[in-house]
Amino acid sequence: MKTTKKGQPYLALLTFILILGSFTVSAQEIDLLLKGGHVIDPKNKINTKMDVAIAGGKIVKVAVNIPANTAKKTVDVSGLYITPGIIDMHAHVFQGNDLGSYIADGQTAVPADAFTFRAGVTTVVDAGSSGWRNFRLFKEQNIDRSQTRILALLNITGNGMYGRFEEQDKTDFNPEMTSYMITKLYPKIIVGIKAAHYWGDFTQVDRAVEAGKLAKVPVMVDFGEHQPTNSIKSLFLEHLRPGDIFTHTFAYGPKDRETVVDDEGIVKPFIFDAQKKGILFDVGHGGGAFFWRQAVPAIKQGFKPDVISTDLHSDSMNGGMKDMANVMSKFLNIGLTLEEVIEKSTASPARVINRPDLGNLSIGSEADVAVFSLKKGDFGFTDVRRNTLKGTQKLDAELTIRAGKIVWDLNGVSGPLWDSPQALTR
Amino acid sequence: MNIQHTSNKSMSSISLSLVLIMTVLFSPFVSSAQEIDLLLKGGHVIDAKNKINGKMDVAVKDGKVFRVAADIPTSSAKKTVNVSGLYVTPGLLDIHGHVFHGTDNNYLSNSLDALPPDGFTFRAGVTTVVDAGGAGWKNIDLFRKNIVEHSKTRVLAFMNIVGGGMRGTEAYEQDETDMDAKLTSAMALKNKDIVVGIKLAHYIGHDWEPTDKAVEAGKIASIPVMVDFGKALPPLPLEDLLLKHLRPGDILTHAYRYDQEYDKNGKMLEHKQAIVDVKTKKVKPFVWEARKKGLIFDVGHGGGSFNWSQAVPAMEQGFQPDVLSSDLHTGSMNAGFKDMANLASKFLVLGMPLADVIAASTWNPAKVIQRTELGNLSVGSDADIAVFRLREGDFGYIDASGMALRGKQKLEAELTLRSGRVVWDLNALSAPLAK
Fold first, then answer.
1. Contact A426 B116 (CB under 8 A)
2. Percent of chain A residues topping a pLDDT of 70
3. N or C: less crowded end of chain A, CB within 10 Å?
4. Which of residues 126-155 of B touch A (CB under 8 A)?
């Protein structure tokens, strides 16, 4: 603001107005008001009808009956669910054109914005596509250019997910460089370490945990390609720490990955112990890691994942996974409550990655908000082997807001009608 | 079909021939056990080329459409999918996408603003996408290597008259020294299998040179030209473009665009591209004349090129688009456009009959790009097929300026087949039940 001598009386007046404004509800202090929806904000223990007000890109008020005349713009979301913007803790968004690569700077990774907002997601955590050698490229090329908030787990392999062959190189598992990259360079973006696709013993996991200890961040393990299988009991009880993450929880490939549910359909007892100890179980659906034969009995027996996530990449996007809203819908249809599904897609992943600022609608937090409709009807959901489960409920992302800005509006609920007076002024 | 087992050494050659003839004669009438790989049963087929708009079954074998008929017995198929209550159409053909994705800091040429096609096509019933000018003659080879050969979607291209392609509107695409009709047409002919037209876009100079060069390239290569009419100031007359410079079969894209532009005094200019006169709300007479002459009007919705204020009066006056297309890129994917099924729904809601909407997304564009093997369900054609559900309810649609229109209908892609393979299955119609 210019402050010339001439302007000082106005400044005084302005200050007066500002002080006055802080006591009364001045006209239109709210930029965007979501009115009439049902708020589910598990962190703040809200699960009831409330309005949500946004100003300056932040949540400014969550309350019953916020008057519409206090807002510049009001969107009627009655009949819909308002939740914190969804966090997808397991995605692959280091999209690039290195045709020799699998996921790191490769075509199997996808552009984040193309899959997030339309499913209510506002934050993704890239799960180890990059390692310390190519994280900078990932940041410059993808993270800095996306509207979606992209965080990352850094692969313990320096080159990230370049290819299965390269990912076997023990000499490229470097805990020091991996932890330095986190603590010295990017502590705000890199939220953990990833170990994946290794064919050998526990070396990769142990190095990842070593890096995790140095950087004080969790480790996520994809433990799926050991022949013969390595014991997950040993992984949970002897190698991982409380707060570390086991992903692809409901995968079924007994030749190279020990399953959570045994051949008789019973959840192995040590799984419950591991969860009690603090091992976190992540869905990571993907193109090959979600089976009804594992998930359905597990939920029935009371073993629930801690975090729901996609493992988004080009081999999962058109299969059983589709998008985060579809994966969330699957869990609704096998017995989780809507509140549980939202919690495991917002507050829970935020806690797991030590980002308590995310995944909630607390006053002052960045206004990342999702609005869902819960459709009733006859739906079908496939697992990664295209076996079907019939369901009656499906979540559709109606409106997604990122830092206060509407970034997705499925049914045009936020737009004025084209032939209305409001439209003509624009 | 295997008929070898009918041969017998003891048979005379005459009786063998007879058996063969009988077999061939009768094969259309009998269905041997499970010769069909996939049978879509009970749906309503809309196939404009073959003038089908009714309940029929569609049989797929060896990646091709094998038969389209009423009541094909399920016993003749290895796998049957019940699509009753749904619409079965040729896979949609989107002639205006931007899929030359890459990591350069360009606009829509080997850049992050262009999108990998497979994430947007199949989930909307699209099986073929034509990139609209991302590549020019200098980088069509890279486009082939990076995109065409790495996509499950069938990818074709309009080649930009600018040699370097759509690298940026401010400078690269204004460089007339990089517009060469001979080199462009030569590379188009060399890449005939993927290049179906020439694109001119974003030119803001006040002359017709680039247009005429694009048309010249189109003439040499015998392919159409698509024009995104730039923002020249003072404006070049659209009437001249359509009636004097383009040929019948050439394409005006962004047909329902309306850009508000103002002169120095803040007075609103009548945008040269608007096909509907802003004051009278009438489709301009020369637009009708151009249509009569054979010019093609393409939607090219995009992030900024579809306005209710143009589309509603145009549709009310009977000016339907010839072709529905996306102008897919990062700037349109999450806005009013979303995907081709959403765009098709918009035109349904504007009163365009479903059969016309499908024709304008399948057979019409196939004819426009002279790829008549596409966009139809003729027997023997590649089995690129979409199955849509027409939902009834309260829906809303936004245009490029964020304005809404309410509607009661919405198309949703339930099942998409590409060369006979299921590549999208929204509600698991084609999958067995678990357990």
1. no
2. 93
3. N
4. 145-146, 150
Q: How far is Cα of residue A101 from the mean position of the Cα atoms in its chain?
A: 25
Q: Do the Cβ atoms of A99 and B145 come within 8 Å?
A: yes
| Interchain CB contact of B15 with A (< 8 Å) | no
**Does the pLDDT at position B60 exceed 60?**
yes
Q: Does the pLDDT of residue B90 top 90, yes or no?
A: yes
pLDDT in the model for residue B235: 79
| CATH number for the domain that contains residue A263 | 3.20.20.140
Q: How many CB atoms lie within 10 A of CB A61?
A: 17
In a domain, A364, yes or no: no
Q: Is the pLDDT at B65 greater than 70, yes or no?
A: yes
State the count of interchain CB pairs (< 8 A) between A and B.
Answer: 133
Beta strands in A302-354 (DSSP E): none
How close A149 gets to chain B, by Cα (Å)? 16
Please indicate, yes or no, if residue A239 is contained in any of the structural domains.
Answer: yes
**Mean predicted lDDT score pLDDT of chain B:** 91
Mean pLDDT of A340-354: 98
Note the pLDDT tens digit of each residue in A6-30: 445 555 555 554 444 444 445 679 9
**CA of B139 vs chain A CAs: smallest distance (Å):** 15
pLDDT at A375: 97
Nearest CA in chain A to B429: A380
Structural domain count, chain A: 1
How sure is the predictor about B278, in pLDDT bands with cuts at 50, 70 and 90?
Answer: confident
Is pLDDT of B1 > 50? no
CA distance A203 to chain B (A): 35
Chain-chain contact of B119 with A296 (C-beta, under 8 angstroms): no
- Contact yes or no for B114/A111 (Cβ under 8 A): no
Angle made by CA atoms B151, B157, B162, in degrees to the nearest 5: 130
Q: Per the CB < 8 Å rule, is A114 touching B120?
A: yes
- List, as ranges, residues 305-334 from B with C-beta within 8 Å of A: 308-309, 312, 330, 333-334
Which one of A418, A419, A420 would you mutate to disrupt binding with B, by most B Cβ within 10 Å of its Cβ? A418
CB neighbour list of residue B161: distance below 8 Å, 6 or more residues apart: B136, B179, B181, B184, B198, B199, B200, B210, B213, B214, B217
Å from B309 to nearest chain A CA?
A: 7
Domain residues for the domain of A352 are 86-359
**pLDDT at B165 (0 to 100):** 97
B82 interfacial to chain A (CB closer than 8 Å) = no
Give the domains, in start order, of chain B with CATH numbers: 91-376+391-407 (3.20.20.140)
Chain B nearest CA to A71, separation (Å): 19
CA–CA separation, A348 and A356 (whole Å): 9
For residue A379, the chain B residues in CB contact (below 8 A) are 427
pLDDT for residue A27: 61
| Cβ contact, residue pair A317, B333, below 8 Å | no
- ipTM of this model? 0.91
Is residue A353 situated within a structural domain?
A: yes
pLDDT at position A26, please? 52
Residues in chain B with CB shorter than 8 Å from the CB of A408 are: 334
For residue A106, the SS3 value is strand
Phi-psi region of A60 (alpha: psi -120 to 50; beta: other; left: phi over 0): alpha
Is residue A36, in this structure, part of any structural domain at all? no
Per residue in A84-143, pLDDT tens? Answer: 999 999 999 999 999 999 999 999 999 999 999 999 999 999 999 999 999 999 999 999
Long-range contacts of A175-178 (CB under 8 A, 24+ apart): A175/A207, A175/A208, A175/A210, A175/A211, A175/A214, A176/A211, A176/A214, A177/A132, A178/A131, A178/A132, A178/A154, A178/A211, A178/A215
